[in-house]
C-alpha cells in the first residue's frame, strides 16, 4: 500500500487488522473503539451503517463482530481515501462499502429505513468563533459541528434506520439532554445508556447511548466504564475491549 505524507499503517488494537492513520489528518481514538464494542450488531447477517466514519475504524471493528454488510459515510475526501485503502488492505471490500459524501444527503442516496443498525461518532463541539477553530481543516471538521450538527446526525439516523432497528452514538455527557431530546423528537427511543469515566472519582467524559426506532420507553443505565485504574493503567474491562485480554 502506498502511504502519503505523515501517514502510517497501524495495528487495529486487538483485531488482526491494520488501518491507515495520519496525525495531521485523522487518527481514531478510544471513543470510536468503545462505540464499536457498545453497539448491538446482528451476528450472521444484516445491513449496518456508520455515519461520520473517518478512516473507517468503526466499520473495520464491526466487521469482526458481524457477517453483515457495512456502509460508511465520510465527507472529507482525504480521510475517505484513507479508509478505502484500509478496507482494501484488510481484504474487506466485499463487506465494507465506503461513500464519500454528506450524511445529510444519504437518505436520498441510500433510501429511507434501509439499515438494521446505524452508528455515529459525530463532531462533539458546537462551532465556536473562527478564532477558536483548529486551523487544521481536517481536524476542525472532525471535531466541530461545521459540516453537520447533532440534530442532522440524529435526524438522518432516524431516516435511514428500519423500524425496530437500533441507533448508537458516542458523545460528551454535556450534550446528554440534547441527544435524548433529539432522539425522542425523531422517534428513536433511548434504551441503553453508559457513562465512561477517565478514572474512579472523576467526572464522566464520554457517554454511549443506543436507541430503537419507534421503541417503547424503557431506558437502562449500564454500570459505569472506567478507563484507568489507580496506577494510571487501563482497567481490565478496557484492556479486554482494546486488546482482547481476559
Account of the 3D structure:
This protein is an alpha/beta fold. Helices cover 28% and strands 27% of the residues. Strands 3, 4, 5, 6, 7, 8, 9, 10 and 11 form a nine-stranded mixed beta sheet that branches. A two-stranded antiparallel sheet has the order 1-2. Helix 6 runs parallel beside helix 7. It is globular.
Secondary-structure map:
Layout: E1 8-11, E2 18-21, H1 30-38, E3 47-51, H2 57-62, E4 69-74, H3 77-89, E5 96-100, H4 106-110, E6 115-120, H5 137-143, H6 150-160, E7 161-171, H7 176-185, E8 188-199, E9 206-213, E10 220-221, E11 225-228, H8 236-243
Parallel strand pairs: 3-4, 3-6, 4-5, 6-7, 8-10, 8-11
Antiparallel strand pairs: 1-2, 7-9, 8-9
Secondary-structure element pattern, one letter each: EEHEHEHEHEHHEHEEEEH
- Helices and strands: which structural class? alpha/beta
Roughly what is the average pLDDT, rounded to an integer? Answer: 91
The strand count comes to 11
The rough form would be described as globular
How big is the Rg? 17 Å
Helix content: 25-40%
| Main beta-sheet annotation | 9 strands, mixed
| Count of helical regions | 8
Low-confidence runs of at least 5 consecutive residues: none
Sheet-strand content, in percent, reads 25-35%
Name a few traits of the molecule.
single chain, 11 strands, 246 residues, alpha/beta, two-stranded antiparallel ribbon
Short description:
The chain is of the alpha/beta class. The protein is built from 8 helices and 11 strands.
Amino acid at each position: 500500500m502506498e502511504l502519503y505524507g505523515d501517514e502510517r499503517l497501524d495495528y487495529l488494537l486487538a483485531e488482526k487488522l491494520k488501518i491507515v492513520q495520519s496525525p495531521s489528518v485523522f487518527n481514531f481514538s478510544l471513543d470510536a473503539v468503545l462505540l464499536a464494542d457498545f453497539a448491538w450488531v446482528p451476528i450472521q447477517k444484516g445491513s449496518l451503517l456508520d455515519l461520520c466514519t473517518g478512516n473507517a475504524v468503526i466499520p473495520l471493528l464491526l466487521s469482526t463482530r458481524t457477517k453483515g454488510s457495512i456502509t460508511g459515510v465520510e465527507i472529507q475526501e482525504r480521510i475517505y481515501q484513507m479508509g478505502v485503502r484500509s478496507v482494501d488492505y484488510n481484504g474487506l471490500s466485499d463487506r465494507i462499502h465506503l461513500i464519500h459524501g454528506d450524511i445529510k444527503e444519504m437518505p436520498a442516496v441510500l433510501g429511507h429505513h434501509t439499515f438494521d443498525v446505524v452508528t455515529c461518532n459525530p463532531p462533539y463541539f458546537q462551532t465556536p468563533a473562527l478564532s477558536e477553530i483548529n486551523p487544521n481543516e481536517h481536524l476542525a471538521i472532525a471535531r466541530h459541528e461545521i459540516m453537520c450538527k447533532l440534530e442532522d446526525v440524529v435526524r438522518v439516523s432516524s431516516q435511514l434506520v428500519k423500524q425496530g432497528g437500533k441507533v448508537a452514538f458516542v458523545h460528551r455527557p454535556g450534550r446528554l439532554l440534547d441527544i435524548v431530546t433529539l432522539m425522542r423528537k425523531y422517534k428513536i427511543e433511548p434504551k441503553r445508556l453508559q457513562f465512561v469515566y477517565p478514572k474512579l472519582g472523576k467526572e464522566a467524559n464520554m457517554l454511549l447511548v443506543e436507541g430503537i426506532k419507534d421503541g417503547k420507553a424503557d431506558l437502562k443505565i449500564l454500570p459505569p466504564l472506567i478507563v484507568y485504574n489507580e496506577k494510571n493503567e487501563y482497567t481490565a474491562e478496557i484492556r479486554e475491549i482494546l486488546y482482547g485480554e481476559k
